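Protein: Arylsulfatase
Species: Bimuria novae-zelandiae CBS 107.79
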Amino acid sequence: MALLTLLLQASVALSAVQCASAKQPNILFILTDDQDWHMRSFEHMPFLQKYLVHEGTLYANHFCTVAICCPSRVNLWTGRAAHNTNVTDIFAPYGGYPKVVREGINDDYLPVWMQNAGYNTYYTGKLWNQHSVDNYNDPFARGYNGSDFILDPNTYEYYNAYMSRNNGPPVSYKGEYSPDVTAQKAYGFLEEATQHPEPWFLTIAPIAPHSNVKLEPFKDLESDVPQYAERHAHLFKDYKIPRDANFNPSKQGGTGWIKKLPLLNDTVIEYNDEFQRSRLRALQSVDEMIEQLVKTLDQKGLLDDTYIIYTTDNGYHLSQHRLHAGKECGYDTDIHIPLIVRGPTVPKGHTTSLVSSHTDLAPTIMRLAGATRDDFDGLAMPFSRQDILEAESTTRHEHVNIEFWGRALPEGKYGQYDNPDGRTGGPDWAGDLPTVRNNTYKGLRLIGQDYSIYYSVWCTGDREYYDMTRDPGQLENYFDDDDEKMVAKRDAYELAGRPFAHVVDRLDALMMVLKSCKGRACVEPWSVLQPKSGIRMLQDALEQKYDVFYNEQPKVSFDECALGYIREFEGPQEVNVMGAWDQELSEPKMRKAPSFVYHGNPHLLT
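Structure follows.
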């Protein structure tokens, strides 16, 4: 009888372990607004460092795919590239909440999927641009058991927020500090979530450290430094933006309108230093919120069952490349962003070099929930030590597809570019605010074992190539024909023993696939070009025997500098696909890829 009792106890214990291991984890997602990696703002957040970086894993090569908030958030919450969501701007007609609704995303995105997977879902903070006091109920944002959304036109006014709680009428929080209000809402939702047996998914999206903006549609837009809570006013008095090589450079890099930018004067530089001090101060409220959330989870015994994911929608530039405050460029200042994860199985104090993007986060979160979909353009990320080490050793993938359509909109009180592209005025919602119209481009970020590259093709026909192992500030554009030294460098350039022209041929072909890819083709673009070769990396594709094949590929181009994604204006859409390859032949056999390859099913080409 005693033996039977012991066996029964062991069986019960084993069943409990099995149930615990099968239990869906809770997920806490913190999403800041415009937080940079380049200026290392997250290193100035002591609680983030203590509770997340030291207790979790930093993904040091994480990128957004479109450097502006609304399209980036749609990319994040759908796992689909911007050219597939067709939300490419922050305002109509190409973006904003009405566009999200028209594209069917309000009925078909991550919070809805998580509810279907058995989760209670909660959200507080900024959701979409143009989600306003006038349209918050037309229709209501779907997918949440509890919500408190910050609404336009006051989204970026730190002391004048309007919020709608659980689809109720907007409430004014005038005089209260917006990130603190968002934090208080988060604590309430966390308390509510933990009263139910179901797992929960809580997203917290404060506006920090976005600039303070007063938006009056059809009138004007006033932008200035972020505002911060009075308790943080004494911080960072002596801080200055890192004077890296690309800080207000004496020799400008870039191309097009960026190459023409004048040096910033001392007044602007002093203002920009204070701008970044204010951004860091604004982030301290977020930092304090992190500590409170972690302590609450610990007190409730939930910390070990919860994944905490911390990231931002896009990066930020501030004096780099002579740029005024803002984003919307393809440089690492704008697309390279923090991602920190803490949770069950996640290695503590680890930094991984795996290449990932916001397109990967929805499939990752769905996998954590034990659910799957087959329409993602991204790939679930490894979180366990074993999976991370395995992915690092096998090189998961090395590319990030970058895209942007429309204008560059400078921020801050000195933020104007004197319309260097010859256009005047901004879009209707910005009145006469000077903007740069011709800021539509395709970009490609590639990080391999022995190379780090950024390549872009602009709607104007301009091109950029930066070898970031030699030029991390992205100042030496190998397509700068006006610079004799760069022409000489280009002529002498080699990567993996191959000359510049052959490297660019491969990048052109890769970008051709990625600019229209869908599904698995976005994750394994080389397999679209060479289905039977087993090629997964640039270095493999650089073999000399493929030179003719890549030289004869169509090139990325634009028929017009459109302000949104209009496929008909985006040049050729088909690539040459390699047929049966005979190792004894000196030239490949080729055929055209049918258009359906960009709508899934790349395996049909084999």
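Remarks: The chain has 18 helices and 20 strands.
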